[in-house]
Amino acid sequence: MNRILLIEDDIDLAKETSLALGKWGFDVELINNFEMILEEFIDKKPDVVIMDVNLPLYNGFYWCEKIRDISSIPIIFLSSRDSNMDLIMGINNGGDDYITKPFSIDVLVTKLNGIIRRTYKYNTSSTIMYYEDLIFDIEKCAIKYRDKHEELTKNEVRILTNLLKNKDKVVSRESLMMLLWDSDEFVTDNALTVNINRLRGKIKDLGFEDIIKTKKGMGYIIQ
């Protein structure tokens, strides 16, 4: 049974969501002390975090960054705001997905099942991939170039793995969206763009060239 840490200060919504997810076979833990979110995260050891953006004291983006300092566990944001800026902030701060309130429990369950399957059952024949002098450690979710390294989120790992496995071939945006979210029905095109740009930024921060090229109207390629 997969353990979900639900960080939601709307008590009624938290209980309703917890009950619904319980019927789908999830073990849901709720946060009781919003001043000690990081400590409760460490104590409860969840498989996935579902976190509201608007929280007491500090918002969800803040706590996501704190969790990312110690873990690459999947994080799904919930928010009553549907602006592109919130989506961008959520992904840039390390979130793996973003759901706007009010949401369907079926949509949430679909996303949870997909992210759990991809995170904990994602296999590849090798845990190390290379592009010239760039080293990509899939197992450690990190890229390294010379004496520098950058940690990657699960989505960034999947994107880079897929592009390197299809080196010299164009990978369509649609196939990448299916890889990341199973279906493009519940996500925006902008979410993929944010993930791609963040991955490009991390590669650039290492001092390496931009290896992900955009093929307009087609997708992305590494050559």
UniProtKB/TrEMBL annotation:
The modification 4-aspartylphosphate is found at residue 52. Residues 3-116 form the Response regulatory domain. Residues 126-223 form the OmpR/PhoB-type domain. It comes from the Bacteria. InterPro entries: CheY-like_superfamily (IPR011006), OmpR/PhoB-type_DNA-bd (IPR001867), Sig_transdc_resp-reg_C-effctor (IPR016032), Sig_transdc_resp-reg_receiver (IPR001789), WalR-like (IPR039420), WH-like_DNA-bd_sf (IPR036388). Gene3D superfamilies: 3.40.50.2300, Winged helix-like DNA-binding domain superfamily/Winged helix DNA-binding domain. Residues 126-223 bind DNA. The keyword Nucleus does not apply. The keyword Transcription applies. Keywords: DNA-binding, Phosphoprotein, Transcription, Transcription regulation. May play the central regulatory role in sporulation. It may be an element of the effector pathway responsible for the activation of sporulation genes in response to nutritional stress. Spo0A may act in concert with spo0H (a sigma factor) to control the expression of some genes that are critical to the sporulation process. This is Stage 0 sporulation protein A homolog.
